[in-house]
Every structure is written in structure tokens, then in C-alpha cells.
Amino acid sequence: MLSLLPNATFRLQFYRLICLIMGHGVQMHACVFLLFSAYFLVLEMHMYFSFDNRYLTDGMLLREAMTDPLLERYKVIILDEAHERTLATDVLFGLLKEVLKNRPDLKLVVMSATLEAEKFQGYFNGAPLMKVPGRLHPVEIFYTQEPERDYLEAAIRTVVQLHTCEPPGDILVFLTGEEEIEDACRKISKEIANLGDQVGPVKAVPLYSTLPP
Questions:
Q1: 42 near 62, Cβ under 8 Å?
Q2: Per-residue H/E/C for the chain
Q3: Cα 77 to Cα 142: distance, rounded to the nearest angstrom
Q4: Within 13 Å, how many C-alpha atoms sit on residue 75's CB side?
Q5: Rounded Cα–Cα distance for residues 63 and 112 (Å)
Q6: Rounded to whole angstroms, how far apart are CA atoms 15 and 59?
Q7: Which residues of the chain have pLDDT under 50?
Q8: Does the keyword Nucleotide-binding apply (predicted)?
Q9: 93-123 pLDDT, tens digit each
Q10: What domains can you pick out in the chain, each with its CATH number?
Q11: In angstroms, how far apart are the furthest CA atoms of the chain?
Q12: For the chain, how are helix, strand and coil distributed in percent, rounded to 5?
């Protein structure tokens, strides 16, 4: 069935979870349910009827290139988060540069918020460069008076203080890995629950690249 869908739009996501989220998001917000949309992961494939889009990880695109060297089933390829340099992504950049020489009809879009754009612009033979300015929101920065011996416990304590003392809202905490994130979610939920009816409920949601669907 997939080989019968020429001129599809492909979007590369380097993280499995983001690939899943975007595939679901397009399906949920699509207004036209006539064409084909899919996201592909290693050992996993999901298909939806919406736009003629595909969301793949870098490894899956490399696999497709083994049987379709010119990627002829795609009309547009979008490489998102291009600054996430891995062996697979570097191979893809070289592969796509060669494909573009043989397929002038193929459109390649490289996107990143932190990429050294001029270097990639030169690599792709002076491709047009577009900059989309972001919006800055006011931010107040507060520092601890003394260095914290345990930054994880300090982060959990700060979240609980904000939840109990500030108006309702969201709190985003950056931690170093899956274990710390899961541990923080458990402890935050437990500490808020121990406060009983003194404060409102809290929903601690983990987010990391290997999070299962």
C-alpha cells in the first residue's frame, strides 16, 4: 500500500516520542480525511487517513533509502531539529545532497532553532535561508542563596512551594534523565497528596525521549 502513494511529504524527527506525538497531532487536527498520513518507527507502523504526510525517525529513512535510493516516493522532505547530530543524521545529510543532484523536483527543508545555519547553507550549495523570529516572554530569574547539595530534592521542594504559594498554573522542571524525572514525579505527587485539602491537586507528567506511547 505504501508504494502506491507517490509524492508524499516526509518529515524526519530524531526522537521516537516526538515522532509519535506529531503523527497523532496531525491526525487529530486534520480537517480533510481523504489522503494518507502515517508515522513509522522501528518495529512499529501506524497509518491514519488525513494528509499525505509521513513522520519517520532517521533510522527508518535510511532503511527506505536502501530500496529507494532516490527517495522517489517523496516530493518534500523536512529535517526537523537538524542540530541533533548523530551518525545517522550525518549520513542522511550526505545522502540527501546526492539525491538532490539527481532530483531537481525534490524539495528539502532543514529546520533548527540552534543550528549554525550558514554552514549548512554552504553545504547545500547556497540554499535559501529563512529566519522566523521567535517571541520572547518576560522571565524573572531567582537564585538560591547557597549551593544545593542535592539539586533534585531542591527542585522537588521548589515545585511544592510554588504549587502551595502561587496561583494555579504550570511548572516545567528540567532534569538530567529518565530516572530523575520519574523519581521527581513520584515524590512531587506524594508530597502534594500528603498536604491533603490544604492545596489543590497536582498532575506530574514525565516527558523524555524514550517514554513509551
A1: no
A2: CHHHCCCEEEEECCCHHHHHHHHHHHHHHCCCCCEEEEEEECCEEEEEEECCEEEECHHHHHHHHHHCCCCCCEEEEEECCCCCCCHHHHHHHHHHHHHHHHCCCCEEEECCCCCCHHHHHHHCCCCCCCCCCCCCCCCCCCCCCCCCCCHHHHHHHHHHHHHHHCCCCCCCCCCCCHHHHHHHHHHHHHHHHHCHHHCCCCCCCCCCCCCCC
A3: 42
A4: 7
A5: 24
A6: 10
A7: 1-6, 9-11, 13-15, 19, 23, 26-51
A8: yes
A9: 899 999 999 999 999 988 887 777 888 888 8
A10: 14-30+43-124 (3.40.50.300), 136-212 (3.40.50.300)
A11: 67
A12: 40, 15, 45
Q: Where do we find the cell 502551595?
A: 164
Nearest residue to 84 via CA among 18, 23, 11, 15: 15
Please give the DSSP secondary-structure letter assigned to residue 150: -
- Say if CB 209 and CB 17 are below 8 A apart: yes
**What interhelical angle do 151-165 and 178-194 show, nearest 10?**
40
Instruction: Find cell 522517489 and name the residue.
Output: 72
Q: What is the pLDDT of residues 2-32, one digit of tens each?
A: 333 445 544 454 445 554 555 455 444 444 3
Residue 75: name the closest of 92, 54, 60, 95 by CA. Answer: 54
Q: Which cell numbers hold the place of 29? A: 487536527
Q: What are the cell numbers at 87?
A: 551518525
